[in-house]
Amino acid sequence: MKTKENLALAAAFAAQVIFGFSFMFTKIALEVAEPLLLIAVRFCAAFLVMNILVWTGRLHLRLKGKNIKWLIILGIIQPVVYFLGETYGIANSSSSFSGVMIALIPILTLFLGMIFLKETASPVQIGFAFLSVGGVILTSVGNNTGSFSWFGFVMLMLAVLTGALYGLVGRKISQEFTPTERCYVTFALGCVVFTALALITSLGDIRTKILIPLTTPSFWVSIGFLAVCSSVMAYMLLNYALTYISAGQTSIMANITTVISILAGVIFLKEPFTVRQMIASVIILVGVYGVNRSVAAQQEREIEH
Known about the structure:
By secondary structure, the protein is mainly alpha-helical. The protein contains 13 helices and no strands. The chain has one domain (2-304). Helix 2 (35-55) packs antiparallel against helix 8, helix 2 packs across helix 10 and helix 3 packs across helix 8. The longest helix has 30 residues, at 275-304. The relative contact order is 0.21.
């Protein structure tokens, strides 16, 4: 079991590294495409990849006879509601405020896991969790101020809530549904819902909003990474992690995304790297390590006794 937990931690870490690079590819794609089109094509491509893997026998589905209600709920939570909340929340808020709000997801997941899944967290774990979130907040403060928007605030709150609920529901159904089954159904929902929304919002300007982006090479390079790596691979890894470690542990790993996104921007997009970002990155990594090390120490003490 210890080996599976270590593999789960490695899977969660790898997933967040991939998510970290996804910000860079998303930024490139959004130069030519509307957000809803990008999300729609991303999940359609991801769903196609999942089907190819299933048809060729690389992955296996055993949904017959199972109650897929919880899978549908998981898919509605994320990607559907979460991506809508995050996309429109960020679009209607300053980047600093958005960063602070999204950083609350691991903390909310930790406490909801304690309440609903009876997961345990020591004061040390909670302290390191807040330290890691503090690092994320430090990277956000001072970026863009902008004006406050109640609509943006509500949408970001929706993203925070559904982001936390995804970890809880995924953990709850992890023993009944495999990572493949969870990804397959959630990607199918994302494909259908976001395609419909992209088409509806593009009516009257199909050429500019759909045809031109779909004929741009850089858009498809980004889609290749976002669909295959950031959707199929990363979500498979994340769902595997949720099978063996707590929702709180998995969620805290998400703060690593901030560090990776900063490094990707600096290395590949030639963005500046400030002293504050360096300090914040160290704080995040110390917080993430502290949470998982304290969990391991607690488990070792329980085994000894």
